[in-house]
Amino acid sequence: MKMQRSVSLLAVLRLVLLYFVTETRQAQESADLIFLIDGSNNVRPAEFQFIQSFIANFIEDLNIGPNAIQIAVVQYSHTPSTEFYLNTYHTRTEVLKAMKNIRQKGGGEANIGLALQFLMDKHFTPSAGSRAAEDVPQVMILVTSRRSSDDVRSGVFSVKKQGTFTFVIGVKGADAAEAKMIATDPSFTMLVPDFQRMASTREQLMPLFSLVAKKQLVIEVQESKVEAQVSKRDIIFLIDGSSTVGNANFLEISKFILNIVNKFVIGPDSVQVGVVQYSDDALTEFYLNTHSTQSALQTAVKGLRMKGGWEVNTGAALDYVFKNHFTRAAGSRKDDGVPQLLVVITGEKSMDVVKLPAETLKRSAVMTLAIGVKNADPAQMKEIAIDPSLVFNVENFQSLPEIKEQVMTPLSTLAGVTIIYEQPTEPSKKEVDKRDIVFLIDGSYSSGRRNLPAIQNFITKTVEAFDIGTDAVQVGLVQYSDIPKSEFFLNTYSSKDEILSHVRQLRLRGGTVLKTGEALNYVLRYLFTKYSGSRQEEGVPQFLILITGGRSRDDVKQPSEALSRAGIKTLAVGFENAIKQQLQDISSDPSLVFNVKELRSLPEIQQEVLLPLSTLNSATQTLSCRYLRLPSLNSVNHLDRKVVTQAAKKDIVFLIDGSFHVGNRNLPAIRDFITSIIETLDIGSDRVRVGLVQYSDTAEHEFYLNTYSSKDELITEVNKLRLRGGTEVKTGAALDYVHKYIFTKYAGSRKEEGVPQFLILITGGRSRDDIKTPSDALLRSGVMTLAIGAKNAVRQQLQEAALDPSMVYNVKEFDSLPEIQQDILLPLSTLSGVKLISEWPTIKSINENADTQERDIVFLIDGSVRTAASFPFVREFLRGVIKQLNIGENRNRIAVVQYSDKARVEFPLNAFSNKDDVLAAVEKLRPVGGIGLNTGAALEHVIRNVFTTAAGSRRVANVPQILVLLISGKSKDNIRERADALKRAAIVTFVIGAADADGRELKEIAYSSNLLFAVQDFKSLPEFQDQLLQPLKTLIVEVIKMPTGVTEGHKRDIVFLIDGSSHVGTFFYLIRDLIINLIPNFDIAKDKDQVSVVQYSDDTRVEFPLNALTTKEELLAAVKRLRLKGGRKLKTGAALDFVRRNVFSKSGGGRKHLGISQILLLITSGKSQDDVRKPSEDLKRAGVMPFTIGIGEVERSELRQIAYSPKLSFQVDNYWGLSDLDLHLLSISQNTENVPIPSTISSGVDRRDIVFLIDGSSKIGKGFPAVRKFMAKTVESFDVGEGKVQFGVVQFSEDPRTEFFLNTHSTKKKVLVAIKRLKLKRGQKINIGQALDHVIRNIFTSSAGSRIDNAIPQILVLVTSGKSNDDISQQAAKLRELGIVLFGIGLKKADQTVLEPLVYSPSLAFPVKTFQGLLNIQNQLQQIIKTVAVEVVERPAGDK
Q1: Which residues of 112-121 are buried (b: 16+ CB within 10 A; e: fewer)?
Q2: Pairing mode, if any, of strands 271-278 and 282-286?
Q3: What are phi and psi of 783, to 5 degrees?
Q4: What is the pLDDT of residues 814-825, one digit of tens each?
Q5: Integer Cα distance of 1120 and 787 in angstroms
Q6: What number of other Cβ atoms are within 10 A of residue 584's Cβ?
Q7: pLDDT tens digits, 1040-1054
Q8: Helices (H), 11-152
Q9: Residue 967 main-chain phi, psi, to 5 deg
Q10: What pTM did the predictor assign?
Q11: Which residues pair with 34 in a beta bridge?
């Protein structure tokens, strides 16, 4: 069986494509280029000639020679064959002649893997002409027509390990996934349907090859890291030694192991191997540290003899290996970061549960491969393996050699495991589906009758939190003392009332001795069975809640382990004399132990107990693992931000720079900062522990994590702190020190208990040693590092040290540390563990590293009189930046706008298509002058006039839009609304402020704080250009780049904030139905629309966050399960603030940082009891667009204040009116966020008046039938009739002509017939202004059938072929005043600039150019027409 393609061969390589900008003319082209071509029978002779022609054309323009580019050609089919080597020919003529003489090899197979290895062994060698030793780029171009007949991974690994550039041209039946895996980067893959089109790939391939040959694109292979990871590994073979295997087959297993271990270098500093046999129990053959030489290991493997036994207990064997072999005593080097691997080989289905011990191994970073033979259960194999791609199945033991290479690859390349712990979120009934819950309660006399009511109350509250039923949650109850006794089984009662009635009648059974172990055995044998109602076989989660008040007199460990192996999750609640150690032994996890001093305190832990019951879905915490090659801190998803209780356990170590760079003057500030952090923590040996280390050239602890257990002791010790001194700063060595000596069990670390581990680094200088390696080691061991830099600290080094770039904090001086205290406390209080998603090492594509990225860059320059003297420096700055950019029509486009009191476009984005022309235009720039600065108006000007299609913007093609603002003073007008508009439009704004620029204004305008720069004055700009260029060319692409093929218009973060107060009562289902009716119109997916629901009253509760549900079905099911929260008061302001901070945030699943629209839909039934103004403003400033829906007698002014604009505020008379809002709110799910949607009149949902105003001039000509077809298709999509949708048609050229009025035809059929009969009006000119005046006066009137007086939406669809010959401004304004929504469709010369002055909103302009384009926009246009509703503000005089 072949392993899945997800197992990449770049496992041990950290390859990075690096792009260097150099002058092309000065770069010497040199490369060793080998063409590896498909010569199999899959390529017909005529097609083979196309390959020859392609190669000949490709090398035609290359500089061929021993000191330039060398060429070799290799053919492959079942075997590879050399046509000529790199050093065979030295001129282009010789190479071309040799190409003509090549004859197709032929053959039924195409073994690419073999061919790749052949190239590495025979061609990329000095004897064959390779100049790799001289640093000459090594390049291969593979031409393939089919999927490889053999496994390519080993060959690909060899090629990539040597840093060879690989391009792949896939033709005909080439496998796209295989081609991308072979290529150095997916962008180096070109796929064409046939050989005739191969020539088209030359244009894509040649620029890339040229960059390689000029060394402007290189691969960096970090070999040292490879050696560190690959040379060391601990491998244990766990093999089925049962009698069912048989001696002959056991010998095959021994041979298989021997063949694998012979491929490794064996030794204590290399690869170590252990072997364990098992059947009904497990037997150690030898440990990891038993054999330290190859020969000793070989002898031991050859001496293996079958253990025997008839039962196969794989689960117990996995547990045995975990406890007895992956330990330091047994030779494991896990603590040193050495990869831990387990290979399970079995031929039978396990008789016990394998899932729990397999999960334990995964959590412990052990990477398990599962090999199933004969009767092995495939489902169990998947549970055992760390990933489905690491499951291997063979029919019999004799076939094991067939998978040897497939098993060798992960054994050789996997370098670590990624552990993702998902902590439970706040419980809610909607999350709870099916569960089986058994209460096991202490009924002894020591518990006492006085305590029984407290236990009864606790059980009652727990049961009340769930939906009880045979298809929901089932509950059982057992009392015990010396013997256990069932009160009722899981299937005894099927309703909540029956259970609660029994609980109320509960009587203490008595007894003087507690035998908890016996009771645990009892519930396993008699309660968690199918007979007693357990639904474990159906996958229903099984829970046991133990409540006990004394010491057990028997062993609890073995029965609790049996429960765990059976997949039962045990929660242990102890009171009075319960023994904590016993509770920990019993519980499935230390976090599931709950202690109260006395039973009356049980309500205090009620929610904590409900949390795992409500959220855990299996016998383990929700857990997933990914194996990885090398942990990369470039992966952003490190953080598992979940709210934890205030008293959560944490181990926090401060690592502080004690060198002379910090100095005695700064030490008090550091001491005060540490003290202030400690004061906020719940210090205690069983809560938060703190340690402290100082370092300079060496590190030394001040105190360990377990030195002090009280806050006062810690603060006293911190206040005594004295600087250790030292001239050098070696942060890397200090990180290694805390990893080895502080985050250990001996020093007080509770890492093994799952307690979160934090390191806070505070430094003031550049480290003189390597930081990355020790920080990676800390990360792998689960330590979360926060890095604080002051003075001369280097940001790059801080980022390497920190868990995530968001956890790097910079201050200018140590005195400013208090400013970041709250920022530091946030991760300390919210992170509950490391959530590493370290992907396989990726190779950054040339589009992300080289300056070939498309961007539209607009410079908006303060040209006021205050900048006149320094304006030459502005020009110099622009020249310097532009020279470094790749200018072109399909590369970077540049525009320049100057402003003071008014804005002036110097040149738009499409004015120039080459660098020289742009630079010449910049040279001619002169300041516009002017005293005042209207920055807000200038920002609006660039949005409306520069970032448009007509001005050359490629925004609709998802090209990044960048604005660089140079400003020297405070704006006289309001900038906030325009700044928000820029962000909503996904325009990324850099701000460079000088002189008297207002800091607060600049922060509001800048896309983010790290894109805000300050200079003394404009004279300093030329020195600043390099600082701007780096983020301009790299950072911005990451900030705004969208996933391929998905536009922003198809992505939304939508949050429903709904009134969950008691006032809503039984009408809650109507709110729920509104959400359910809207969901089908959303495109729910991880990379598309995300939806969250939050309920609120006097407090706020998240029902599910934005990133929780990724399918429409899941979302509908979750909404249907919603139940009213309850609560007396409505605190809307607090709820708005809550969703901004916790739901729309990145940690809550929000994607604002990716430029994705965020929408809030507030549904409320009453006036807020708190202030909504500030939270509303904060929400809008954060880029969220709030809609509001008020039910009944809500305060309208409050709704309007919250809404993004008054037109996004809706009101219905009662709850039933919510159903009338469905269509109006559909605009949320469409790309129509700029369409005004004023107040809704519920009666007009299915009614609207639509008039087509059609250009009938001669310019339309033969295209008129297409216009008729467009109108007819539009009409067909509506329900036409007097009380429904009405249509009218007017044609115009020099003058207008009414074809039929809105009330002329009362059925769809009649309207369609009338449209079919339309004839072109003809005429040379078009007067749109006159035509608009005609429809205002004669069509949108009561006498013509318009229902404008009844607030029915009035819609005008204009189709025009060009610009109007008369004035249109007054008529367009009048239409807006009347609330008539004009849609503009532009044909031929009618572009965006023609349409925008006419339409109701810029988003309603559709410049389609061609008649075919009319049909392309049909669906989009219809959807918008159906969802727009407009409130009539003013009616024409006399039309009452």
Answers
A1: bbbbbbbbbe
A2: antiparallel
A3: -90, 130
A4: 988 988 887 787
A5: 45
A6: 17
A7: 222 222 233 457 889
A8: 45-59, 92-100, 112-118
A9: -140, 145
A10: 0.28
A11: 72, 140
